[in-house]
Amino acid sequence: MLTYIIEHRGSDLHLVPGHPPLIRIDGILLPIAGQKVLGATEVEQLISGVMSAEQKQMFIVNKELDFSFSYGEDARYRVNSYFQKGVMAASFRLILSKIPEIDELGLPRICHEFATLRQGFVLVTGPTGQGKSTTLASVLQEINNTRPVHIITIEDPIEYIYAPSKAIISQREVHNDTHSWELALRSVLREDPDVVLIGEMRDYETIAAALTIAETGHLVFATLHTNSAAQTIDRIVDVFPENQQPQVRMQLSANLEAVLSQRLLPRKSGGRVVGYEIMVGTAAVRTSIREGRTHMIDNIIQTSAEYGMKTLESTLGELVNSGVIARETAEAYATRPEDIKRYIKGA
């Protein structure tokens, strides 16, 4: 099954008792050809077969577990195992060993500039399964290949493995290399980093630590599950108690370099293409964040193309006009569907 995903360019494998093994290809779940419906015992055997003894123990205690493992030389899998209706199930996410380049992924040119930054805060956002980890890996790989710096990643679990190049990379996995996110983030400043990747900003503690690391002169990359640049700012600020929010707005306005919000969209010809919104930390954006006027950010993005900014709707419009995606796809994925007509020729 793991080989089948690679051969058919799938992204995820789902093992749930009462169903055949399901694979996600281009965003759509399909049963694996020739596989029968799995029973609870079969699913348990399959999942247990890729766990270490320690992982099995943690899984039984915690009822869910994130881990990863190498599969030959070509791939790794990130796994979330969990219980549902009292029996084991799991989702496997394919991570190819070769880290794609920024241009290969169809990302905006400004992503190359992220790799040259000396300090600041760069966020890649979007729903689960939209390629955020791959985007950050491509930027880190460019830094790895071009700059003699110390990169520290804190992940749960480790996804892409970076080969030694100009940079040195310390990859820390929660539970394996550190007991918690909080401890890893607290000690990271003592490890002489230049660049820090925080796999996911999950809560108040990780967001506060990320801001502090960026504020102390480091380059910080992180992911967040939000749908737009403006929503990202609100989500970060709202995590903090009300009396701390003015200070957080000040920190964000001083350190935020960019927010890239992305989606993976089905191509007309098969496969997927990235649609994105990009917000850059210009003076106007920083002022809006500092003064709590995030409702102005969408307008700033629309009128600041010269700084590399772009709304998701303008990107979707370009993809429709060039025949890459269908108009219906653009309308379905737009966060402001009423704006999409302005960008589509003949609409």
Summarize the structure.
This protein has 13 helices and 13 strands. It is of the alpha/beta class and 347 residues long. It starts with a helix and ends in a 14-residue tail after the last helix.
Give descriptors for this structure.
25% strand; 13 strands; 6-stranded antiparallel beta sheet; alpha/beta; 347 residues; Rossmann fold; single chain; Beta-Lactamase; 2 domains; 7-stranded mixed beta sheet
What does this protein look like?
With 347 residues, the protein is an alpha/beta fold. It has two domains: 2-96, Beta-Lactamase; 110-310, P-loop containing nucleotide triphosphate hydrolases (Rossmann fold, 3-Layer(aba) Sandwich), CATH 3.40.50. It is 33% helix and 25% strand. The protein contains 13 helices and 13 strands. Strands 9-8-10-11-7-12-13 form a seven-stranded mixed sheet, sandwiched between helices. The protein has a six-stranded antiparallel sheet with strand order 3-2-1-6-5-4. Strand 10, helix 7 and strand 11 form a beta-alpha-beta unit. It is globular.
Strand order of the largest sheet: 9-8-10-11-7-12-13
State the helical fraction. 25-40%
Number of helices: 13
Report low-confidence residues grouped into runs of 5 or more.
Answer: none
Could you tell me the CATH topology label of the largest domain.
Rossmann fold
| DSSP strand count | 13
| Strand content bin | 25-35%
Q: Biggest sheet, in brief? A: 7 strands, mixed
Q: Could you name the CATH class of the largest domain?
A: Alpha Beta
Radius of gyration over C-alpha positions, nearest whole angstrom: 21 Å
